[in-house]
């Protein structure tokens, strides 16, 4: 079943508030610029597929996301 329309970080933050302290991740359409905002909002991390595998340099893209996620 499809998850429905994109919620954006604001909508996702509402879900985070109802998660009762369980770790939550931002999934779908995540670009490098989203990583810091997701972490600052309290998400445990992001799940990325297209941003890495759709890149011309998969290794560099993976390193960039990792650096952004871990500081």
Produce a short descriptive summary.
This protein is mostly helical and 71 residues long. It has helices at 8-17, 32-41, 50-53, 58-70, and strands at residues 25-27, 45-47.
Looking at this protein, list some descriptive labels.
71 residues; mainly alpha; two-stranded parallel ribbon; 4 helices; 52% helix
Describe this structure as you would to a colleague.
It contains four helices and two strands, in the order H-E-H-E-H-H. Helix 2 packs parallel to helix 4 (58-70). The chain is mainly alpha-helical and 71 residues long. A two-stranded parallel sheet has the order 1-2. It has helices at residues 8-17, 32-41, 50-53, 58-70, and strands spanning 25-27, 45-47. The model has no long low-confidence stretch (mean pLDDT 88). The radius of gyration is 13 Å and the shape is globular.
Q: What string, H for helix and E for strand, traces the elements in order?
A: HEHEHH
- Beginning-to-end CA distance, first to last residue: 35 Å
Structure classification: mainly alpha
Q: Main sheet?
A: 2 strands, parallel
Strand proportion, as a percent range, falls in 5-15%
Sheet with most strands: strand arrangement: 1-2
SSE arrangement:
Blueprint (H helix, E strand, L loop, with lengths): L7 H10 L7 E3 L4 H10 L3 E3 L2 H4 L4 H13 L1
Parallel strand pairs: 1-2
Helix pairs in contact: 2-4
């Amino acid at each position: 079943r499809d998850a429905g329309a994109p919620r954006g970080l604001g909508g996702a933050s509402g879900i985070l508030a109802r998660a009762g302290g369980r770790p939550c991740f931002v999934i779908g359409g995540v670009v490098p610029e989203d990583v810091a905002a997701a972490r600052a909002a309290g998400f445990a991390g992001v799940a990325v597929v297209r941003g890495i595998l759709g890149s011309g340099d998969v290794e560099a893209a993976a390193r960039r996301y990792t650096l952004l996620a871990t500081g």
